[in-house]
Each structure stands twice: as C-alpha cells, then as structure tokens.
Amino acid sequence: MQLIQTVLNEITGVLEQVDSQKLCEVAQCIQKPCRIFVDGEGRSGLMAKGFAMRLMHLGYQVYVVGETITPAVAKDDVFIAISGSGESAYVVSDTLKAQQKGCTVIAVTSKPQSTAAKAASVVLTVPGTVKGDSEDVRGSVQLLSSLFDQSLHITLDVLCLMLSERDHITNSTATQKHW
C-alpha cells in the first residue's frame, strides 16, 4: 500500500503544477460548433481517445487523428496534440500540418520547449515524467511515462468538467450520448 500512496503523491505534485489559467485558455478554444481533432501516439494516444470520447459525450464534433473515418483538418478547426515529449514523430508532423492549414493548435505536453509546443497557439504543460527523461530528473518511482499519462488523464477530465459546467451539460445529458 505504500506504493499506492507514493504514486498518489506524485500525481498530486504534478497536478498542483498545471496552470489553471492555461486550462481556462484551452477551454476557451473549445467551442461549439467547431470540429476538434485529437492526436497522440502510444499511451498518450490512448489518453487522447478517452478525451475524445468524453468530448463526444458533451456534444462536441470530435475526431481522433489516424482513425479511418477521420476527415482532413481545415481552417478554424481545433487540433489538440498530446505528447509527453512533444517530439513524437507523427504527432509533430500532424501538428505542423494543422498549423499550416490554419487550425487553432493546442499542445498538451510535459515539455513546453518541444517541437509540438513551439508549433502551438496554446501550450498546456502537464509536467509529469516521460520515458526519455534521464534518471537525475525523473522525479518518479514509476516506469516510463506513467506519471505523465495518469496526470494527463485527470487534467483532461477536469477540462471536460469545466466544459460541461460552462455549456450546462449535466451527467444525465452526457449519459444519453453514452453507447
């Protein structure tokens, strides 16, 4: 049980560093009826899919980049790049394309100086440890990017809660969109 407490303490430490003003700025970018595209690789991609699902429950038109039914991005779409390192090859490539097409680009990353972050209009930093971090800066007992992934999931759920409150979407309304 000591490990559970250690992990909870690590997550709390990361979440306390998430800038609430930046979270509000991201929420301002996500407005109906815009199209939202989320992108991520590996476990960040899994968190992106969970986020997309929750946005759908809130009534947003949302797509996951890389799925067969995802259309091309266009000017005025919102593109959300999710990458702990901010250097995931496909995410960076997609982010640069979205930027060129005139999308509002949001980067959610642990590394605010990364390539994906530099291409973004808004950067939301979730400063959890990621797999490329050296041992002297890891700050986590957990493997690879677990701390980033866990903190990311909670941060994105909080963002959805903010959107639901702003848009007056109740749990009952969201449940009606659940499969």
From TrEMBL:
List, for all copies, the residue spans of the domain called SIS: 26-169
For this chain's UniProt record, which GO biological process terms are given? carbohydrate derivative metabolic process
Q: Which CDD domains match?
A: SIS_PHI
Q: Mind telling me which Pfam families this protein's record contains?
A: SIS (PF01380)
| InterPro entries according to UniProt | PHI/rmpB, SIS_dom, SIS_dom_sf
Residues in the signal sequence:
none
Which SUPFAM superfamilies has this protein been placed in?
A: SIS domain (SSF53697)
GO molecular-function terms, A-Z: carbohydrate derivative binding; isomerase activity
**Any idea which UniProt keywords this protein has?**
Isomerase
Q: Which NCBIfam families match?
A: RuMP_HxlB
Q: Which family does it belong to?
A: Belongs to the SIS family. PHI subfamily.
**How is this protein named in the record?**
3-hexulose-6-phosphate isomerase
